[in-house]
Amino acid sequence: MDAFKKFSLKQGKDWRVRYNPRTAIPEAIIGGRTTRYGGSAEEAAAAFLSDNKDLLNVDFSQLRLAYKKEFMGTAHLNYQQFYKGLPVEFSYVRIHVDKDGAVSGYQAKFEPAISLSLIALISPDYAVSAALADLGHPLKIKKTSLVIFPDEAEGVLKLAWKILGRGKGSWVYYVDASNAKVLFKYDDLRYACPAF
User: Fold this and answer.
1) Residue 90's pLDDT is what?
2) Angle at 65 between CA 38 and CA 146, to 5 degrees
3) Residues 178, 172: contact at Cβ < 8 Å?
4) CA-to-CA distance for 55 and 4, rounded, in angstroms?
5) Which domain holds residue 79?
6) 24: how many CB neighbours lie within 10 A of its CB?
7) Does residue 160 register a pLDDT over 90?
8) Domain at 66, CATH number
9) 185: which of 31, 44, 107, 132 lies 20 to 30 Å off by Cα?
10) Among residues 75, 48, 74, which one has the least CA distance to residue 60?
11) Are 145 and 177 in contact (CB under 8 A)?
């Protein structure tokens, strides 16, 4: 809380913060505008993260710009978190920078203290077999990749195989890379609906 008080004293009292209950770092800071940062929107975002590192606890070296959209004079930057080259699934940092270089909003789901083995104990083929057994019907595999998966049920991070495949849907599976347990799955098939 002391870090947020310092932020509010520097940036104004209109800001509100919401903390992540598991990581205890801010997942949203909204309601105000910071002082102006120079340079591009990306440079302003980097300066904002650096200026507020005690509050945000975000390691900028772990972020890669996933996309940038500009709308009505505001640049919306979305960063994906990577740890030692592996994507951290569902982890992101979003920063909204206006045309003058002021930050008007921050949302994040960042994993601040990653400490896990990055050595898979099962092969990608074994992980695919586990996914197929769980699904119960054929699946044409499009891609397998190692990722870091936040297991919210257990409150820990796990190394997992992410499996993308088609077959009675567009399936995404996360299989624990240490024991072949299915951690999470969903059908990502998008349906087009007729206009009314």
Assistant:
1) 95
2) 155
3) no
4) 6
5) 2-109
6) 9
7) yes
8) 3.10.450
9) 107
10) 48
11) no
Matching residue, tokens 């910071």 = 34
Residues 140 and 168 in one domain: yes
Same domain, 45 and 17: yes
Q: What angle do CA 178, 111, 31 make, to 5 degrees?
A: 155
The residue whose two tokens read 């980097």 is 46
| Distances, alpha carbon 75 to alpha carbons 19, 53, 94, in Å | 24, 21, 10
Residue 192 pLDDT more than 90? no
pLDDT at 168 over 90: no
Q: Are residues 98 and 166 in the same domain?
A: no
In tens, the pLDDT along 149-159 reads: 999 888 899 99
57 shares a domain with 130: no
Q: Are 4 and 17 in contact (CB under 8 A)?
A: yes
Band of the pLDDT at 1, cuts 50, 70, 90?
low
Confidence of residue 138 (pLDDT cuts 50, 70, 90): confident
Alpha helices in the chain, H assignment, sequence order? 2-11, 41-51, 53-56, 124-135
Q: Which secondary-structure segment (H or E) carries 136? A: none
Q: Residue 132's domain is classified under what CATH number?
A: 3.10.450.40
Same domain for 162 and 65:
no
